[in-house]
Each structure stands twice: as C-alpha cells, then as structure tokens.
Amino acid sequence: LTEICLSITDFRRILQHLFVETGYDFREYAVSTLKFRIERVMKSYNFEAGEELLSFMSGNKTFQESFVSDLQISGTELFRDPEMWSALRKHVLSKLPTKKPIQVFVPSCVSGEELYTLIIWLNEAELLDNVELTVSILTPKNELVIRQANFNIRKSDQTKKNIELLDTDKTFDDFFNVKQDYFTPKLRLPAQTRFIVSPFVKTDYLNVFDLILFRNKLLNYNDKLHREAMHVLHDSLVKGGHLMLGIGENTGELFKRRFKEVVKGERIFKKNSF
Amino acid sequence: MSKEQKYIVIGGSAGSFQTITRILDALPNNYPHTLFLALHRLKYVRRGFVEALSLKSSLHVSEPADKDTILPGTIYLAPANYHMLIEPGNFFALSTEESINHSRPSIDLTFRTAAFAFKEQLIGIILSGANRDGADGLYAVKKQGGTAIVQKPDECQVRTMPAAALETSKTNIVLSDLEIIEFLKNI
Fold first, then answer.
1. What are phi and psi of B106, to 5 degrees?
2. Nearest CA-CA distance, residue A162 and chain B, Å
3. Contact call for residues B114 and B34 (beta carbons, < 8 A)
4. pTM surpassing 0.90?
C-alpha cells in the first residue's frame, strides 16, 4: 500500500478540478474508498503531493481518461452472493408476468460482472428472449469493456465456488468459455440492449422498469448522492417492480416504507404501490 | 478509565480467533469504547461468525451496513467479502474494491481509514496471522498519532503477521494476549 495520505482539502480540489476539466463528477462520492484510489494513482505516478497530480492533470486528456477509469470500481466476481441469486430466481423471476417485454435496467455498469450474471440467470429462468435491457454507463469506454466481457482468470475460482453454491445443477463450464488468461460468458448481450452514456442520477425514467440491478453501487456515494440515487431508482421502477442492492447496502431511512424487502437479508426490494 | 472516547481496531487472521474471544470475554458490559474487528474470513460464508463472537461478549457485536453510524460500546466485525472503511464523520463505508494482500476485508484498509478518521484516539492491534496484511495499516495508525500494538510474535500460532507489523511500524509496544486485555480494560 501507499504511504501517501491525501488531505481532505487536496482530495476535494482534485475532484473539483476533474469536474471542471472533464465534466465527470465524483464530488459527492464517499471519501474513504475514493481517497484510497486517488492515493494509489499518485503512487503509480510517483506523486508525493496532491499539487503534483493537479498540475499533471491540467489539460492532459490522456491522463484524465485513465484517471476517470481508475476512479470507477468494477465488479468483484460473477454470481457474487449466490444465495441472493437463488432467492431472486425463486421469489422474483419465476413470478414475473411475461405478456409484455420485461424492462430491465442496470445503471452505472462498469465492467459487467453483475450484468452478465443477471443475463445468464434470466436465460436460466427462460426469460431472456422477453427482456429489454437498458444499461447506463459513465464513459463510452465502459461499453467496449462490457461488450468484450473478458473477465480476468483470477476471478474464475471464486466464480466457480459461487456457482457451486447456487440453486442449480449447472457448472462454471456450462456458462463460460475459458481462454488463456481470461474467461468469457457463452451468452452475449441481448440484441435489445440499449446503452446510455450518462451519470445514473441524471437519468429521468418514470415508472418504466420491472427490475433494476444496482448492487454495491450505493457504496460509492456519500449520504446526499445516496438519497438522490434512491429517488431515481424509486421513480424509475414501476409499482411492484424490484430493486436489487448489495448485501451490505440499505435503502436509507427515507425509503424504508416505500420498499418491502422480499427475502430478508438478501436485499431484494419490491416497490410498494402507495 | 479515562473519559476520552477511544476506538480500537484489531486485525487478525490464522490463529487469532482464540485471542479475539478472550478479549471480548474480558470486556465489561459497560465498556465505553468502540472496537472494530478486521479479521480474515471466508468470502462466501456470510452467516455464523458474528453470532459466534456474540456468544463470547456482553457487548453488542454486529456487522455494519454501509453508512451505519459508529456507536460507543459496540463491537463491529468487518462483513464477509467487503472491505470495512471508516468514513470521516463517524460512520462506515463498505467497499467491493479488489482484494488487497489477497484479502477482502483488508486489515490495512480498515486500519488506514480508521487512523485518518480518529488520529490519536485510535489504538491499533495486530494479532496472529499468516500474511503481511495489517503491517502498513499499523504504520498508518502510528503515523497519525495513534497507539500501535503488536501481539508478541512468539506466542502467536502464526507469527508472520505480527512480525511484519512490528518490522514496518517500528512500534515498541509488544504485548502478550493477557497484557493486551489488561491494557484495553484500563484505558
């Protein structure tokens, strides 16, 4: 780990500067994780003070682009929290009405681990052909990474373990092809997939989606952005629609009564109709 | 006991469970300080650990959710497959950041963020373990003005972690498990 310890003042100056130069806004993100990521970037460039990073960033489009990538946290492994995925299939997917296309939203997608897990799982539930998928991304580069879906082979052992713990007879080899140093899903994105390049909280859907996958994204936000994000998530869902958050996340006090947790502890929420 | 609120962050891995349970068992139910436990654990086993620790403690033991407020007299265990970070403003931030030293939760990350948040109010303790996670974190505790403690490597089941912490932090507070318990009871 790095010995660098960025002051809060420099931390805020860097994010302000990044916003002014690029329009990418990380100013309302949680401090501790983002601060650590900036310190790690500083170490890789041998910067000792925030001032050095600031002057290097000024007008340097190549660095700005890679810096924005470094500040986004990608997924960990596929089928993370297998109990949640089993519960989702049993309590939500099996009960979705199939008369009209199922509208699915995956906001703030970075590298696709959670997205492809959902696609595989929708396919297992024989719903994928009836899904219209909307994916929001922060930068156009995210779409390339997501479409490629080359997951580092180091993540394969944990993914195998997760699949073993799923409520299914299928194995890792049923879902993925292994290449030399990466593995890739056998299923590709559905043809009806729409990418939108936008900060998620700036999207303005109203009563559109049946299912929103937003696991471990609220972690990145501070209290204020968390509340804003929950408003957007709530408004985007149809009444009775479902929201999946990470196991360590909460809807927040304001939204407790607006959602009902479908399976206790698995953070699958159903939007109340009042 | 002093009146100043203290925060105690304990890091441990292989061989530390027995010492942890001894510490929890010894703390009284009116203990005013806050403990954070950053312990290496299986990623895919979410349940059972906090319940096992609760059996040994008269204090409330919990796994925090993201943005939970940090309360005095409470013991917090880093949840499985998340990093547990301390956010300025006295609350938790969880993270799915990549593993650090092959570990999520990372002892280093909990220690570093706690050191930044609590400065001299923080006491960092490294127990038995089989890798060098926690060494940089304990160094950060000392650098930010906190108290850095290492369990005597010779009494640990696995000495790698305390030996690395000792070498990196250069702390001179090296205590046996019984001395650690006495220290914590008397702050």
1. -95, 130
2. 7
3. no
4. yes
Burial class (CB in 10 A: 0-12, 13-18, 19+), A100: exposed
DSSP-derived letter for residue B103 is B
User: What's the CA gap between A230 and A201, in Å, rounded?
Assistant: 9
**A151 exposure class (CB count in 10 Å sphere: 0-12, 13-18, 19+):** buried
Answer for the pair A3, A196: CB distance below 8 angstroms, yes or no: no
* Bigger pLDDT: A4 vs B165: B165
B187 Cβ contact list (under 8 Å, min separation 6)? B1, B2, B6, B33, B123
- The residues of B annotated as belonging to the active site are 13, 40, 133
pLDDT digits (tens, 9 = 90+) for B145-164: 999 999 999 999 999 999 99
Q: How far is B182 from chain A (nearest CA, A)?
A: 32
Chain B residue with the nearest C-alpha to that of A74: B97
Q: Which of A33, A75, A165 sits opposite B95 (nearest CB)?
A: A33
Closest CA in chain A for residue B136: A1
Is A119 in the B-facing interface, judged by CB distances under 8 Å?
Answer: no
Residue A83 sits at the chain B interface (C-beta within 8 Å): yes
Q: What is the mean pLDDT of residues B84-107?
A: 94
Structure confidence at residue B1 (pLDDT): 47
Set of chain B residues whose Cβ sits within 8 Å of the Cβ of A8: 88
Q: ipTM of this model?
A: 0.93
